[in-house]
Amino acid sequence: MVKRIDIEEFLRLQREENLPVIDVRSPSEFNHGHMPNAKNVYLFNDEERKIVGTAYKEEGREAAILKGLEYVGSRMATILKEVDKIAKSNVILMHCFRGGMRSESVAWLCSNYKYDVYVLDKGYKSYRRYVLESFNNKKYKINLVTGRTGSKKTLILNRLKELNYNVVDLEGIAKHKGSAFGWINEGEQPSQEQFENNLCYELCKYDNASVLWVEDESLLIGKRAIPRGLFDNMKNPENIIYLNVPVEERAKYITDTYGKYSIDDLRESIIKIKKRLGDERMREALSLLEEGKIYECVVVLLYYYDKAYRLSIEEENKIINIECGNLTIENIVSAISKI
Questions:
Q1: CB neighbours (10 Å) of residue 110?
Q2: What is the rounded CA–CA span in Å between residue 297 and residue 285?
Q3: Pairing of strands 220-221, 224-225
Q4: Within 13 Å and on the Cβ side, how many CA atoms surround 40?
Q5: Measured at the alpha carbon of residue 98, what is the angle toward residues 97 and 100, in degrees to the nearest 5?
Q6: What letter would DSSP give residue 88?
Q7: What pTM was computed for the model?
Q8: C-alpha to C-alpha distance for 106 and 113, rounded to whole angstroms
Q9: Active-site residues: which are they?
């Protein structure tokens, strides 16, 4: 059985029935952006896709089908074996880019083998439309956690998540901790498209009545942009929790966090903010770094970061100030839980 379904039904079956998603696009298409938890079982590799596409444009549908069969004939058994490894039952979800020949072909193959196949109508394009629209269609109640650089916001949000608060870790999804040093030890950031897909997947766990806990961020996290609809929502929060942490404590936390990393990476990060830091202060920071005086280097950098810090929300009636000096993470979380 092969049945076409729309994006809402497709995602419902994925979520509620835990059905696997088979993405039959080429590897490069998949790597650029895909549904979270989808598995790539390609019909054509990148070079084959290019050749078949050229045949379709220059010679027509029949020529493209014949050319495609030259590649696919020997791969049919492999495709079925790969699907067998992924499937949990005899029901699977499948899509290509537009819901055309590639998903039709693999769905036909799988259905004749043993599977009931639900094919996404209009393919991955319809999913991307759903993702982009979702950021504008939902308006969440947001508690925004903010504070100057080194205020342990991530640690506090992680602890809140452990206590079953609805925490959305934007930096974790973007694979970047923010600031000039945020890329260190994080690996490559996802593409903008994949960042949006992953973020949508996380947000779909919550409805409009949910209260989300989010760290205050600028529009860009590294090179990834928070979708404008969500970003605007973040700038109109229910509450703003300002963590007021003394500079010495923040410097120690940053030193403990980043001091273990490569001097070369730290140097590169400092040079990145040369224009904003100024030549003199940059040279001072680099000199301290080379001398192994990481804490003193961080204090110099915090002078810049503190001077540049500006609370993105100016509605004072929404700001809840928490004095964090000498408080443990548990103490701070306990204070937040009373909000």
A1: 24
A2: 5
A3: antiparallel
A4: 15
A5: 105
A6: S
A7: 0.91
A8: 11
A9: 96
- In angstroms, the CA 227 to CA 219 distance is 8
Q: Which residue has the tokens 């897909």?
A: 197
Residue 189, number of CB atoms within 10 A of its CB: 18
Cα(first)–Cα(last) distance of the chain, in Å? Answer: 53
Strands, sheet with 116-120, edge to edge from the N-terminal-most edge strand: 2-5, 116-120, 91-95, 21-23, 39-40
pLDDT tens digits in sequence order for the chain, 339 residues long: 999 999 999 999 999 999 999 999 999 999 999 999 999 999 999 888 899 888 788 888 878 878 777 778 888 999 999 999 999 999 999 999 998 889 999 999 999 999 999 999 999 999 999 999 999 988 899 999 999 989 999 999 999 999 999 999 999 999 998 878 888 888 999 999 999 999 999 999 998 888 999 999 999 999 999 999 999 999 999 999 999 999 999 999 999 988 888 899 999 999 988 887 888 888 999 999 999 999 999 999 888 788 777 665 556 668 899 999 888 899 998 888 887
**CA nearest neighbour of 182 among 258, 246, 124, 244:** 258
Contact 240, 313 (CB under 8 A): yes
Residue found by looking up tokens 């769905």 in the block: 107
Q: Are 170 and 100 in contact (CB under 8 A)?
A: no
What whole-number distance in Å separates Cα of residue 42 and Cα of residue 40?
A: 6
| Percentages of the chain per state (helix, strand, coil), in multiples of 5 | 55, 15, 30
